[in-house]
Structures are given as structure tokens and as C-alpha cells.
Amino acid sequence: MREEGRLKGLEKGIEQGTRRTLLRLLEARFGPLPERAVKALKRMRNGALEALSLRILEADSLDELGLG
Fold first, then answer.
1. pLDDT-derived band of residue 43, with 50, 70 and 90 as boundaries?
2. pLDDT at position 19
3. Which among 20, 8, 9 is positioned nearest to 44, based on CA atoms?
4. Which residues of 22-52 are buried (b: 16+ CB within 10 A; e: fewer)?
5. Average pLDDT in the 14-38 region?
6. SS3 of 58, please?
7. Are residues 33 and 27 in contact, defined by beta-carbon separation less than 8 angstroms?
8. Which residue range is the domain that position 32 belongs to?
9. Nearest to 22 by CA among 64, 68, 54, 61
10. Which residues contact 45 (CB under 8 A, 6 or more apart)?
11. What's the pLDDT at 51?
């Protein structure tokens, strides 16, 4: 039980760090983000965030990323 809680906490911390990094990258690439994009990122879980991190490299817009 204790180990499971520790792992969940670690996973949540990684997810938050990934989200924070993606927000910074998106803002650097596309400028200030609309609130709907920020909210969409906050709802994403780790797998979706990781997939998004690769798509940022080739996307030309937030719409292309599903965040517009």
C-alpha cells in the first residue's frame, strides 16, 4: 500500500513537470496561450502529454495540436 502511494505520487509529480514544460514550450512557440488551451493541458494525463510533446515539433498552430 505504501509503495503504491509513493509510486502514484511520483507519477503525479512527473506529470506536473511534463505539463509545466509543455506550457513553456507552447508559449515559446505560439505566444501567450488562450485559456482553453491551458485548461485542455490541465486535463491531459501523462500519455497524452508525452504524445503532445513530440507533435509540438512539427505543428504550425495550436489548432493542429487540438488546443486551438
1. very high
2. 96
3. 20
4. beeebeeebeebeeebeebbeebeeeebeeb
5. 96
6. coil
7. yes
8. 2-65
9. 54
10. 15
11. 94
The pTM assigned to this predicted structure is: 0.85
Q: How many domains is the chain built from?
A: 1
Within 10 A of 2 (CB to CB), how many other CB atoms are there? Answer: 6
Given a cut of 90, whether residue 4 has pLDDT beyond it is: no
38-46 contact pairs (CB < 8 A, 24+): 40/66, 40/67, 41/67, 44/19, 45/15, 46/11, 46/14, 46/15, 46/18
In angstroms, the CA 41 to CA 49 distance is 8
CB 66 within 8 A of CB 40: yes
C-alpha cell recorded at residue 36: 482553453
